[in-house]
Design brief:
CATH superfamily of one domain: Histidine kinase-like ATPase, C-terminal domain
Helix content: 40-55%
Radius of gyration: 34 Å
Distance between the termini: 58 Å
Number of strands: 17
CATH class of one domain: Alpha Beta
CATH architecture of one domain: 2-Layer Sandwich
Number of helices: 15
Structural class: alpha+beta
CATH topology of one domain: Heat Shock Protein 90
Strand order of the largest sheet: 2-1-5-4-3
Strand content: 15-25%
Shape: flat
């Protein structure tokens, strides 16, 4: 609190003594209690974090044990052992059944990347029915293979590495391998490999973290990283952890906590995998509640200030307090907030100033609201105009196809394409409604695919597999057609062979996820990044995009405009592997 005090007066001397007393009291209190409180809070927080870290070790061991049970089940399967023992005499049908059996295990677990059986001559059987083995890979020289042989039938758990056995697939995995030993003869039949993705390990590590800056990572006995939340940064040396110091700490047995500047590293070792799970905590996360202690100190100082300065404050507070209140509210305008002063206890001049300020703020609110509505209407108009620009091109091409089929005497095809075109535009109009049930959107995209299928003949096939329980939920009209158009023109059309488009839809806890997947040419990482950046860019800053990007951005911006920023499109693609575009919608009932 500030006061207009003339230097040299008695009032100035009183306030000088008051200030010294208050700050001396606060300083003494902070010096006495600060370190004690901070040390107590830090010790308690570290102990709590350590408990969570031990829980994480238990959960990781339980998770690895569940995968290990799967590997034991597979390696002990009599059909698989008989097949491996009679490999030279096995028929192709039996070989396919073995691969299907392995594939069923992969499909049953989202966290399993691949399951392989390796003969001692290097021959590989993959559970992925479409996988091809890289011919230049020497499987017998890999650490997980040698480790499995050294364990003699026990599970060997590797560090994280890029698995490159399968052609075209380079995935970060943790490998569990074990030697397959015949239950009849006791001979070694080969090695079973189960590659795990990081999604479950990452989920476990992120679920038991305290504080905004805290995180967990995992290293093996040699200090190699098994998991790190910023794996790529660590392996590219853009980020580092004090791994040598952590290993030295474990060897010295002087404790299991290491401090580096404002970070604390706590270590627990898994008895199952010999992994060292490291929990990292930051000082700033441990003493977040210290601000409340400071507030209490400040409050006590304020009480002293009021007691000592009550006599002189009675004269000045009638003016300075309401002026300070009015000044604080006026400052909110700088941050874009427009708070009203309302009733204020002050002199008539200050109350008049507050009333004039409230009138001004009210007028500003009205202008901002009107401008917001105007911008919203403009965005809707822009999106509808863009949609109207896209539709005529398709209409021209379809009419050309109808004319051509008519000249060729293909009357049945003319009727079929004309009927599909009529249904397509009837649903597009939808009596002026922008929100329609999903079943109508399915009918719309089905009509579009019928037309395109007749135009391109046997260039592609499609499958629409959307859960019937979702057919009555709302969706923006013309959401799926631009995505299918993108799949045809920029994916399948530019690739060799027959294309396939799969439209699937499932409901989550709060969302509807509809995926449009094609097996077209796909995109490079740079092209995908450019596309994603383009569709996420605000309309006023939109870059120049291809027709493909314009259509996707149109759909993305329309969904966000009607349903909120938590919904829209997401894209996944890789070169020669096709593209998957996911539509995220709210799971809410259709309002007629």
């Amino acid at each position: 609190m500030k006061f207009n005090i003339i230097p040299g007066t008695l009032e100035a001397r009183i306030y000088t003594i008051f200030t010294i007393m208050v700050f001396a009291a606060i300083f003494i209190m902070q010096m006495v209690f600060f370190r004690f409180t901070m040390d107590t809070v830090r010790s308690s927080t570290l102990e709590n974090n350590h408990t969570l870290l031990r829980q994480l070790v238990v959960q990781i061991d339980f998770y690895i044990s569940s995968v290990e049970r799967i590997s034991r089940t597979i390696s002990g399967d009599l059909d698989i052992q008989n097949f491996l023992e009679n490999e030279g005499d096995a028929d192709p049908g039996e070989f396919r059944e073995i691969r299907k059996s392995l594939n069923n295990y992969i499909k049953a677990r989202e966290d399993i990347s691949d399951i392989l059986i390796v003969y001692h001559d290097g021959t590989v059987i993959s559970g992925d029915l479409e996988a091809r083995v890289n011919p230049w890979v020497s499987v017998l020289d890999m650490d997980w293979y040698r480790g499995a042989l050294e364990r003699g039938g026990q599970t060997f758990v590797s560090s994280s590495h890029v698995q490159n056995i399968i052609a075209g697939r380079y995935t970060w995995v943790v490998s569990l391998s074990r030697e397959i030993i015949s239950g009849l003869t006791g001979d070694s039949l080969g090695v079973l490999l189960v590659d795990l993705k990081f999604n479950r390990i990452e989920e476990l590590c992120r679920s038991l973290v305290v504080g905004a800056k805290g995180y967990d990572f995992i290293i093996d006995r040699e200090g190699n990283y098994v998991f790190h939340p910023t794996q790529q940064l660590v392996y590219s040396n853009l980020r580092s952890e004090p791994v040598p110091e952590i290993l030295s700490l474990l060897k010295s047995r002087e404790g299991n906590t290491y401090r580096e500047e404002d970070r604390y590293f706590m270590v627990e070792t898994s008895g199952l995998t010999d992994w060292h799970i490291v929990g990292v905590s930051h000082d700033s996360d441990m003493i977040t509640d210290w601000k409340y202690v400071q507030i209490i100190y400040g409050f006590i100082g304020l009480i002293l200030f009021l007691v000592v300065g009550l006599a002189t404050n009675r004269i000045s507070s009638g003016i300075t307090k309401p002026m300070r209140h009015l000044q604080d509210i006026m400052k909110t305008v700088e941050s874009g907030e427009f708070h009203l002063v309302g009733e204020i206890k002050a002199t008539e001049e200050i109350r008049e100033l507050a009333r004039d300020y409230d009138i001004m703020v009210g007028r500003i609110r009205e202008l901002v609201a009107a401008n917001t509505r105007e911008q919203e209407l403009k965005r809707k108009s822009d999106l509808k105009a863009l949609q109207a620009q896209i539709n005529p091109h398709f209409l021209y091409n379809t009419l050309d196809s109808i004319i051509w089929m008519g000249e060729m005497g293909q009357n049945r095809e003319v009727v079929k394409m004309t009927s599909a075109l009529s249904k397509l535009f009837r649903i597009s109009i939808s009596k002026g409604q922008e929100i329609i049930p999903i079943r109508d959107e399915i009918a719309h995209v089905q009509s579009y695919l019928t037309i395109q299928g007749m135009r391109y003949q046997d260039k592609f096939s499609y499958l629409i597999d959307i859960d019937p329980d979702l057919h009555e939920y709302p969706i923006l009209k013309i959401t799926l057609q631009p995505l299918v158009e993108n799949a045809i023109y920029h994916g399948i059309k530019e690739s060799e062979g027959r294309g396939f488009i799969h439209i699937s839809g499932q409901a989550g806890d709060d969302d509807i996820m509809i995926k449009v997947k094609d097996n077209g040419k796909g995109m490079t990482a740079e092209e995908l990044e450019e596309l994603v950046s383009g569709i996420e860019t605000a309309p006023e800053n939109r870059p120049k995009l291809s027709r493909q990007g314009m259509g996707l951005r149109n759909v993305h911006q329309r969904i966000r405009l009607y349903f909120g920023t938590g919904y829209g499109l997401s894209c996944e693609s890789s070169l020669s592997s096709g593209t998957v575009i996911t539509v995220r919608l709210p799971l809410k009932e259709w309002e007629r």
